[in-house]
Design a protein that fits this description.
By secondary structure, the protein is of the alpha+beta class. The chain has three domains: about 170 residues, Beta-Lactamase; about 70 residues; about 160 residues, Heat Shock Protein 90 (2-Layer Sandwich). The protein is about 60% helix and about 20% strand. The chain has eleven helices and 13 strands. The strands form three sheets. Strands 3-2-1-6-5-4 form a six-stranded antiparallel beta sheet, covered by helices on one side. A five-stranded mixed beta sheet has the order 8-10-11-13-12. It has a two-stranded antiparallel sheet with strand order 7-9. α9 runs parallel beside α10. It is elongated and about 145 Å long.
């Protein structure tokens, strides 16, 4: 497995470095080829200009007096003596005449036809074309002829591309050899660089594998000063600390074993002298073991007991909430009874009226009974994790405290997504929401905020559910902001707070539900943020 990981890492680094080096070399070669081509064309242009200047200068007298025979004889000899020239065309201005001179022949071209399209221009032109007179590709150089700043005509020189093609062929051969060299060089450079880069990472991986097997004496042998070297030093320091801790634990265990052996020997000596008390000692040992088991169970249940303690601490407020929620149905029930009495006094009490009154009274008593069930379920501890919707848990907490909020003129606004499903303890989560809402309520009352407001927002962000609870109570003083999650820390008067509500809220969210609970001050208040991983949808 280790070799496979090393090979994969080396392969990835090798490919990346190879591509980078090959791309640089390829671009360099491409640019060099382009420049070489431009150099060949530039050389042809230079040679053509030299020829044009020579033919124009040496044949100047004939051209000025327009001696066609002299022009022809000179150019004919010049073409035959120069291997590079395929043909020369003399175009007199205004289509007076056009003479084409080849190595074996010459001809006068019809004046009505354009010799070349560029012959009408008064500037130098050059290009590789397919000559209509030679039926092959040539390098055409068009050169205007001026005498006393007057355009006399043009000279068109068709240069053979044989040498040009040879140079191009040599250039491509060079390019192929260079490409092969680039490929081989890239492979070797990539190999060595990849090996150099991957070696320390593979070394760290080997160290990690040895640590996984329980070997804490191993060290990463990386001496570079780069990031991996710094990581290796930190890694080695961590291993040193772990090894020291392990050695300390071994020493403590050895001391403990030695003490146990000594104690066992003492007990054996005592047992040898007091055989008659062996039964009593056995019972005593069994009792001690049972007490140890009980203590372990108590420790395991302590967290749950603290949660219940936090719930019980809020019991007084919950009773007040029940009273507020019962006030309306009790008033309505009283009104129903008064109506029955009034109907009886007015002699209007009949079966239909009685049935409707009983139905309404049953509805009111059922509502009051549901309130009791809601509060009883809330204080019932969760035994195991279950899947539940955040919207249900949040709305349940709001319903428990809504009447109290209304009593103190505090509005609760909520924006809750109904499709967020998580796994955890719904009652405990509702308690967290309730604790935060109670703290917001107490802060609003304490700071005498006339129009208290609490905003609850539940939304899905990536793979997490984010619950934000914001109030306008003025915020939390900076000197206690970092302390509010400490156990038994409270700013309330004695008898009005236990200091375990927010502590247990943080424990429930971060320990029991693998989430995160944070607090910060915002404008005019405080903001509590709960982040919990969302349960994956099984249908996805």
């Amino acid at each position: 497995m280790l070799n496979f990981i090393s090979q994969r890492l080396f392969g990835k680094v090798f490919i990346l470095i190879f591509l980078a080096i090959f791309m640089v070399l390829f671009l360099f070669s491409t640019e060099a080829t382009r420049l070489q081509k431009e150099s060949i064309i530039s050389s042809l242009e230079s040679e053509s200009k030299t020829m044009a200047d020579a033919m124009t200068l040496l044949n100047k007298e004939n051209m000025i007096i327009d001696n066609q025979i002299g022009i022809f004889e000179f150019l004919n000899e010049y073409v035959k003596s120069n291997k590079q020239i395929e043909s020369v065309i003399i175009s007199r201005n205004e289509n007076a005449y056009n003479i084409i001179i080849k190595k074996e022949s010459w001809d006068v071209i019809d004046n009505k036809h354009e010799v070349y399209e560029s012959a009408q221009n008064d500037f130098v032109q050059s290009s590789i074309i397919n000559s209509p007179y030679l039926n092959k590709k040539v390098f055409k150089y068009t050169y205007p002829i001026y005498y006393s700043n007057i355009l006399w005509g043009w000279i068109h020189i068709d240069i053979s591309l044989l040498e040009h093609d040879k140079k191009i062929e040599q250039m491509y051969l060079q390019f192929i050899f260079l490409a092969i060299f680039m490929l081989i060089t890239s492979i070797f450079l990539s190999y060595f660089i990849a090996k150099m880069v991957a070696k320390p990472i593979v070394s760290l991986n080997n160290v990690s594998s040895e640590i996984a097997r329980g070997n804490l004496s191993i060290r990463a042998n990386i001496t570079t000063n780069d990031e991996i070297g710094i990581l290796a030093k930190t890694y080695n320091k961590m291993l040193e600390n772990l090894e020291n801790s392990q050695n300390e634990l071994k020493n403590s265990r050895n001391k403990l074993e030695l003490r146990v052996q000594e104690r066992t020997k003492e007990l054996e000596d005592v047992n040898s002298k007091l055989e008659e008390k062996s039964t009593l000692l056995k019972e005593l040992n069994e009792g001690l073991e049972e007490r140890v088991k009980e203590e372990i169970k108590k420790q395991q249940k302590q967290e749950q007991l603290l949660i219940q303690q936090s719930k019980l601490a809020a019991m007084g407020e919950m009773i007040g909430n029940i009273a507020h929620q019962w006030r309306q149905p009790l008033n309505a029930l009283s009104l129903v009874l008064q109506n029955i009495n009034f109907a009886y006094e007015m002699d209007d009490l009949n079966e239909e009226f009685m049935n409707k009154s009983i139905e309404k009274a049953n509805l009111l008593t059922n509502t009051m009974s549901k309130t009791i069930d809601d509060f009883r379920n809330f204080f019932k501890p969760n035994k195991q994790e279950v899947e539940f919707f955040l919207s249900d848990a949040v709305k349940n907490a709001i319903s428990l405290i809504e009447s109290t909020f209304q009593h103190h003129n505090i509005t609760v606004e909520s924006k809750i997504s109904d499709d967020i499903n998580i796994k955890g303890f719904p009652n405990e989560f509702s308690q967290v929401i309730l604790n935060i809402l109670n703290n917001a309520k107490d802060a609003i009352i304490e700071n005498k905020i006339s129009s208290g407001n609490v905003l609850i927002n539940v939304e899905k962000i990536e793979n997490n559910a984010v619950i934000s609870i914001m109030d306008n109570a003025g915020g939390i003083p900076d000197n206690i902001l970092e302390k509010i999650f400490n156990p038994y820390f409270t700013t309330k008067e004695e008898g009005k707070g236990t200091g375990i509500g927010l502590y247990m809220s943080k424990t429930i969210i971060e320990t029991n539900m693998n989430g995160k609970l944070e607090v910060e001050n915002i404008e005019n208040g405080a903001k509590f943020t709960i982040i919990i991983p969302i349960l994956e949808n099984k249908n996805d």
